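quick one, two chains, predict together pls
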Amino acid sequence: MNFSYIILIPLIPLVVFLLLGIFNQRIKPAVSGYVGVLGLLTSTLLSFYTAYQYFFVYGKANGVYQTFVEKTVWMNFTETLAIDMGVLVDPISVMMLIVVSIVSLMVHIYSRGYMKGDDGYTKFFAFLSLFSFSMYGLVLATNLFQIYIFWELVGVSSYLLIGYYYTKPSAVSAAKKAFIVTRFADLGFLIGILIVGYYTGTYDFEMLNNPEGNAILNWASTSFMGLSVLTWALILIFIGGAGKSAMFPLHIWLPDAMEGPTPVSALIHAATMVVAGVFLVARLFPMYYFVENGFALNIVAYVGAFSALFAAIIAVTQTDIKRVLAFSTMSQLGYMMLALGVSGYDGHEGLGYMASMFHLFAHAMFKALLFLCAGSVIHAVHSNYLKDMGGLRKYMPITNITFLIAALAIAGVPPFAGFFSKDEILVAAFEHNKLIYFVGVFVAGLTAFYMFRIYFGIFWGKETKYEHKPHESPISMTFPLMVLALLSIVGGFIPFSKFVTADKAGFEAHLNYPLAAVAVGVGLLGIGLAWAFYKNENNLADKMVNFFGPFYKWTSDKFYFDEIYLFITKKILFNRVSAPIAKFDKKYVDGTMVGIGNKTVWTSEKIKSLQSGKVQDYAFAFIAGVVVLVLVFIYMWTN
Amino acid sequence: MDILTLFIIVPILTILALVFTKGLKQARIVSLIGSLVQFGMAINLVFAYFKERAVNSDIMVFTKDVVWFKEFNIHYNIGVDGISVALLLLTAIVVLAGVFISWKMNDLPKEFFVSLIVLSIGVYGFFISLDLFTMFVFFEIAVIPMYLLIGIWGTGPKEYSAMKLTLMLMGASAVLLVGILGIYFNSNADGGALTFNILEISKVSIPIEAQKLFFPLTFIGFAVIGALFPFHTWSPDGHASAPTAVSMLHAGVLMKLGGYGVFRVAMFLLPEGAMHWSWFFIILATIGVIYGAFAAIKQTDLKYINAYSSVSHLGMVLFALLMLNKTSWNGAILQSLSHGFMTALFFALIGMIYERTHTRDVTELGGLLKVIPFISAIYVIAGLASLGLPGFSGFVAEMNIFVGAFEHEDMFYRVATIISVSAIVVTAVYILRVVGIMLMGPVKNNAFLTLEKVTWYEKLGIMLLLIPIVGMGVAPLWLSDMILESLHPFIQGVL
């Protein structure tokens, strides 16, 4: 099968971006919306066609899914190292094509209603297309450098879209923060790439990931400070992934990123871009698993588990619904990371890998749905805060039902999508690492609790006095909600273990009933607590706040991580490094040069009787300088 | 007339024509025609070069040799390889863009354009010379008009800045002259005659002791104009006072003379000296990279920000040259080109903003994206290019530099490389800071609401510079391969 037509999937959004970007002023908003949706619809259809062809027709040979690569040289570094551009077709890239297509298309449609009447309507669709292009490029990348290139491009799309309301100072600083934090993480990624390139002589995923290839077999050949250089590289690459996927402690940009328009949060900061880090680890999974017996993979597991827990705790106390969802995203990303971290490679051992990808898929559907519902609510009440909401179920029936479906899905209630993926993650954790399993179970309970906290807070509870009567959103916005809700219901029944596995061979996965029962029980417990606290107005919640006292305060202030970062950047880098350097430059470096000049003038003043006129003065200075330098070098040379 | 000498003749003819013009309109149309012709010649040269290269495998093509000072064996000896072709193209584009940007130069227009074109003669001559002495003469021709251009048409403390810039560059020239003479007097080491001819000297094995002595002199002599730390301080003041087109030309082209000279003279002719001294200059270059970036964070004057940014970016050029391998050298040349287009674009945009708002202080500006969207959007793009976003030239250059620098395995090189790589984060900080303060946010001053829209000549100038940045960034292969191929003969010396 020739998969080279796949190049069109990213190229169409790119063309749309260029069209809308260049003719920004001349295109009518209505037209640009259609162009955007149409472009993405084409890419989506192509993606589904590819998925069908790959998974059901051409992909398998001898029971193993094959990897198809089409590529061309983009730039040569040395005789052996080059950056290629191309498309790589394997189970995870095809799965990601589907995820990106579905969510992006739904967000495009939704935005036509949500952004209606906005000044930058055309610009918005241009940026959405730019993002879609970059994300497609990222998932199709054939080598580390290509993925890095698109990695940066999704980063800049995210910057542009977070800062979309650019006259709002909070949006500007959130955009800046997101870019700089992820850029800092990318520094690790880049150095990791340089190390891999130097020590293995290739950036190519196929070569790197081959369990019988040189890169993996020779991992022990060079070591640095007790660890293989490749382990260091993988840790550094994981730092890049952790930055994009908002893992602790590089998570601080994600909550602020909610300053962007809500459809953007759904697309970029919930469903697609933020899973790039998970995707990256999955993409290099054989390396993570085989090099140094999975040392780097263990780090992934623990960072993932801690982030899942940390974010879930914070999510309980936030009052801005988008921030609750942001921390929830971080927590679920931690889930995916920990699943990868506890995974093996062959057959059923690779359950964690499969579960992680499954959860990525399911999460993309229900989390995008949650955000779009939140957008619909925000659209209706013009506020992000829980205190301005309540009792909305009467006014917004579709949003209510779809939000409920998504919340049940994320809480892991059968038969919704999240139940299956989460159950498999917990089984994988149970089989490999009990500590991580217990963290996972606890987080599952917390997740159910905070999600139903906001559900009850928005749609039930005490009805706020609304200035304008809230109303259901237009069909352009509710249609995507319904589609995603449907996917959140049926998504769990996709037999992922047949399609997306670490060794690409597929295996039979079965529900582990005892563990599933525990997970569901904990989820229902969380929902029950939320029901008791928030369904009707009561003071139970306040009592809990008082009970936890200072711990509650720390949590709602997000454990002061923003303040710590601000201290490091402002107080240390800005005031203690940058400012002194600027001053040093003016005072000493420049001062010395000016001093030399002044000394020359002074000297010439003294010997004015011999020389007059400026030219000679300078000539004297030059010659004097030259003589001194020559003497210095002769001195150094003879020693 | 041969294809290269025309690069000297056409500007001279333009100057002669300019002498007979009256007023701004005539002066600018003559300059425009002159620089358009040069632009056409540069494009033609690229094609001619590829054609010639297919049949001619000499190091230099289109060579020509005329004696002009027999006593000392000084020749007018010219020729180009892929590297000089690329730099000539850069020069032609920046000069043309500079003419567009100076479209409304009301103050002594004739003299202004004459000085500008004299400067370009120096640059063209420098890039085509294969004779050390001729090269040096062109170097001086390029530097001298700066004094007038800043001193007469500048702003702020222009006399001070002009003096400082000229003095420091002249001081460096003096050091350089010693270095060049040192090379000259050793060019008979194999028993031949004394010569300034670069290609001939490259075949001579200059005694190692002499190489060790003259390498630092030659290196510093060139590197001062390439903003080597700690000799970069002429650059912020000089740029801040210079008129827009001069800043563009100076930062865009003139500062490239430094890296080019280091590569063509110091590295090529004194390879042993380069290997002996590289550790020392790597330290200086690495400091320059990170120091320039940190200093840029704290500046408030747009031109100072860009000047320090240049210190950082050009520090990267010197850093890459000192890594002494093909990949990093390729990166150095690409970075020179990329920085040339980018910084010229930045200075052009800063000029446009200054003309409209009469301030370059970022703290007084705000919300420009709302009032002058085109200029602001291009500023954002230029900023993204500057912080090394893929799809723009800076990324291509930096990745070559980093991959090349990573070829060295010992700790010293690794540390220097990682420090340099980390500049990508600091760069993002100062770029996004300016974008955030100046372009985004609410409109700070109601007077900004009536700012003049971008004009056609400004748009042309911008596009001329933007297209190569994007072109290099999207499709780097032909350019980087053209440079790589020309690097073959040079790398042999240091292996």
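The two ends of chain B are 38 Å apart (CA to CA).
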